[in-house]
Structure formats: C-alpha cells, structure tokens
Amino acid sequence: MSSKIQKDSLNIDLSEPASIPKIGIDRAIEIMRSGRLFRYGEFKNGKSEVASLEREFSQYIGSRYAVATNSCGSAMFIGLKSAGVVPGDKVLVNTFTLAPVPGAISHAGANPVFIESDENCRLDLNDLQHKAKSGAKLLLLSHMRGHIADMDKVQEICKTYEIRLIEDCAHTLGARWNRKASGTFGNAACFSLQTFKHINAGEGGILTTDDDDIAAQAILYAGSYMLYAQNGARPPLEVFERHKRLIPNFSLRMHEVTAAVARPQIDMLEERAKAWKKRYKWLADFLGEIEHVRLPDRDLKEDFIPSSIQFFLDNLSAEAISDILDHCRRRGLDIKWFGNPIPQGFTSTWEDWKYISDNQNLPYTQTMLHSLCDMRIPLTIKKAECRLIAQILNEAITLVESS
Ligand SMILES: Cc1ncc(COP(=O)(O)O)c(C=O)c1O
Predict the structure, then answer these.
(1) What does the pLDDT read at residue 5?
(2) What are phi and psi of 335, to 5 degrees?
(3) What is the position in ligand 1's atom list of the atom closest to the CA of 71?
(4) What's the CA gap between 291 and 366, in Å, rounded?
(5) Can you give the residue ranges of every domain in the chain?
(6) How far is the CA of 116 from the centre of ligand 1 (A)?
(7) Which atom of ligand 1 is least distant from the CA of 204?
C-alpha cells in the first residue's frame, strides 16, 4: 500500500525556479571579486552591468527608456510618483492582484479604487468604465498571472477619461496583446525580476517608458545622485535639469550582481516561452477533462507566457475545495487557492488588505476568487507529471464528492 501511495504521489517541486545561466554566475563572481557592486561611480562612465541591463531591456521591450530598481514594487511606487500621483489621490487598480500592487499605491500615499475582475481573471471593463468617473487620474493595471484584458478597450477608456496608464507586467514579460508587447500600452510599465518571474535575478524591478519626464524623475527617485548620465537608457540630460533639485532620492537602486544575473536571461526568454507554453498546454488539456475544473478563457489576441496555470473548482463549497486540496497535498501536490479564508503564502486578497480604509464591495471578484486555484509551472515538468497532477486532482474531487 505504501509503495502504491509513493508511486502515485507527485515527487517534484512545483516551486522550482528557472536556473541561472553559467555566464551570469561567472559574471556575478567576477563583479564580487572586483568589489564594484554599486551601479554608480565617478570612475565608470555608464559602463555598469545595471546600465547595460537598462539598455538591453528597453531594446527588448521596444521602449525608449528603462530604469532599474531593487523590485517591481519599487518600480511601481516611483512610477506612480513620476506619473504625477500625489498623496490623497485615487488610483484605479484591479482587485485580483498581488499584495505589492496596492502596497505601491499606499506607499505613494494614494488610495486604491478596486476594479472588479471578470470570470476569466481579467479586468472587468464595464466596472472600469464605471469607476473611470471616480476622479482617479491613473490606472495601475496588473496583468495578474498573465491574464491580459482587451488592451484596445482599456486604452480607449483611459483616453476618454484622461486617465494615465501604468502596466504592472510582473507576469507578462514577453507577452503580447494583438501582436504588441505587454508594457507598451500606457505611460509606463513595471517588470519584476523576482525569483518566480520570467527572468530570475532573486529580486529586481525595471520601469520602462517613452516619456522623457517620467524617465528622468524615476531615475532620480530610484537614487541616481547627480550621476544620472550613467543610466543605460535615459532621456537627454536637459530633461534632468527640470527635475534634479525637486525629486527626492529614495535609494531604490538595482545591485550590479542582480543585473549580471539577469542580463543573459533576456536572450533565453524566447526559449523559456516555448517551454512554458508547451507545459501549459499539457496541463490545460489534462485538467480540462476533469469534472468541476474550468480553465479561464483566453482571448485569441492574447499571446501569454504561462509560468503558472489558473483553474476554477466550480460548483463546490469552500469546505469541499479545502478538503480536495488537502487530499492533493497529502499526495505531494500543493495547489494554491485564492478562496482560502485564511491568506497563505502569496495568496492574500483585497479582503485581507485592512490598511485600506474604505470598505469596497466587490461581489464579482469575490465569487471568482472563491473557486480560483493556482499552480506554478516549473520549466522542467514532464508530460507524465502533468498527467499525474490531473489524476491526483481528479481522484481527490471524486473522493470528496463521494464522502
Ligand atoms: C502581479 C504582481 N505585481 C507586482 C509584483 C511585485 O514584484 P516584486 O516582488 O519584484 O516587488 C508581484 C510580485 O510577485 C506580482 O505578483
């Protein structure tokens, strides 16, 4: 019996991150030996790893400028400030997102106005249209777990109501909407290089923009001292003259080692995208055959890079879902659940962000999150393991249903 359980258990780590290429490791060691770990220096004249990353990343995205920071949360914070958000402002944001997103809004002293999510994990455009009249001047649009809303419609609403747009692309590096790169639809975009993202540098963020003033302010906020000329993808120096005495230095810079580890991964994105897409399809096909399991619809215009998979456990009570996931966990399959009444790991929801003072009513998102499950997709997962995942889940559902 015990060997049967062993055989039928999942023996892989779903949280296994993408590994660091040798060239990044070698460069990181070289930098540590040199002791030159800080991106700025009166000696370097813009030759730092971070500056090179800024240049290469902006070329990859197709933006004019890029500003490297210590996290995507920091990039969003300085992005909001550089786009003109001041304390007390309202900022529109999707409800279905991760804690650092409302955290960045709060860091800027602003108040989130949550937009509902539709039943496919995307921003609800009707609710956006409605709340666009709330007086908010900016939308921080989080493409949470890589689900991209109809960007043509988002842009149209933003234009009508004169709302600035910052995209949170923590989960959409390399993704496209209607063949246009995610991160090129608004005034600025923010990317994450945290371990579980498409580029793994441990921690790190990058803000991209085509806007001279947003770029110059973001560089100054990130903490460039008067060495901003060394940034790798920056606006002309005269733009800094408008801002350099007015912008505080928040010291949110990227480390040289972070950039050294990240740079070689830009060239790997295409290969990784293929590997993730293939694995997503295996999982989606197997999971899609199970009763009660529903995968979110994806728009044909959405070219997403699925480093994770989301699915709903429909028509089941919270108690039943909890029992199902417990059974799965006992067989080595750890599925995250956004409907868990007790927030765990990364899956807190807007109901847990009690520092936001007004009590917003978001019934559609609440219903959507009730049954929403989430799983990382390791780049090394095999087809047989995807099949086993579906088998374990299916058996857990059958067990709970029959009890
Ligand atoms: C959707 C989303 N946005 C932003 C962030 C913030 O990224 P970072 O951890 O680099 O601050 C995260 C982090 O996981 C995220 O999931």
Answers:
(1) 43
(2) -105, 135
(3) 10
(4) 22
(5) 2-17+269-402, 22-266
(6) 19
(7) 10
What letter would DSSP give residue 255?
A: P
Residue-level pLDDT at 359: 81
Q: How far apart are CA 179 and CA 151, in angstroms?
A: 11
User: Does residue 193 contact residue 258 with C-beta atoms inside 8 Å?
Assistant: yes
- Look at ligand 1, atom 8, and give the residue with the nearest C-alpha: 72
Q: What spacing in Å lies between the alpha carbon of 196 and ligand 1's midpoint?
A: 9
Q: For the chain, which ranges sit under pLDDT 70?
A: 1-7, 43-46
State which CATH number among 3.10.180.10, 3.90.1150.10, 2.40.160.20, 3.40.50.720 fits the domain covering 2-17+269-402.
3.90.1150.10
Residue 188 Cβ inside 6 Å of ligand 1? The answer reads no
| Predicted local distance difference test score (pLDDT) of residue 43 | 65
Q: What is the whole-number distance in angstroms between the Cα of residue 158 and the centre of ligand 1?
A: 23
Structure tokens at 278: 């293939």
Pick the CATH number of 22-266 from 3.90.105.10, 3.30.70.260, 3.20.20.60, 3.40.640.10: 3.40.640.10
Nearest CA residue ID for atom 16, ligand 1: 98
Which residue carries 């890029």 as its tokens? Answer: 66
pLDDT for 7: 57
